[in-house]
Amino acid sequence: MSNQPWVQDFFDENTNTYSYVVADPQTRKCAVIDSVLDYDAASATTQTAHADQILAFIQQNSLSIEWILETHVHADHLTASQYIKEQAGGKTAISSKIAVVQKTFSDIYNLDVKRFNSQPVFDHLFEDHEAFQIGEMQAYNIPTPGHTPACLSYVIGDAVFVGDTLFMPDYGTARCDFPKGSASALFDSVQLLYRLPEQTRVYLCHDYLPEGRQQYQCQTTIQAQKQGNIHIHAGADKGEFVAMRSRRDASLAMPKLILPAIQINMDAGRMPEPEQNGIRYLKLPLNYFLK
Fold this sequence. Notes:
Helix content is 26%, strand content 22%. The protein has a single domain (6-261), classed as Metallo-beta-lactamase, Chain A. By secondary structure, the chain is α/β, with parallel strands linked by helices. Helix 5 (183-193) packs across helix 7.
């Protein structure tokens, strides 16, 4: 049995996000990882152009969705998971530690966290290191907290999908200054990833063109990361990394879509219920993140 999944990437340049369709070539069952719902912040409108590209690819290649996976609760884009599920089926899934994110941000948004606890909004919550299948393709997760407390990396055959844990070697690692984030935890998470075979294909959730590179990229290897990641290469010092990451994070602006994105994404992509006038409304915590 082959351990090489068929991987197709989809890039959303507005948010620098890579989404993936990962398929078992034998059964044509597939997973969608880190989908994007187009969102215009100025007009507070959503569109489905990016997700429709994914759905068209799935239909054109006679694939069937089993899973709609999130590597974490994204702060830079809205997930299209509910739209994809409505159009083509599949089970939404994320780390069971989503409960930490839901509690933290329910306090920030002044939402009733009990609604998340009474009935899980995701179809499946993964426990750490839990195994699963895509068709006949074997898969499991590696907990990789740090960027957020609920980050997972998905190992599918000879590939790993690391979310925001790592970027391309010439760009380094993800920020860790969100609520409950931890540079120390991120360093330890990367060490877990570096235990994978060096030839393992590494697929990233984002790419930002550093100076000197002309093309966006989404794929690297464990070997390339260990040898050349500018923040955490093999033998990197943990204390030096934590100090560097803390200094760097202190200089970063908040992601432009963090307030609408987390509100939607921690609810598995569901929009708020319409109010009496039929309109849905998002909440914004004014001055909460004032530095």
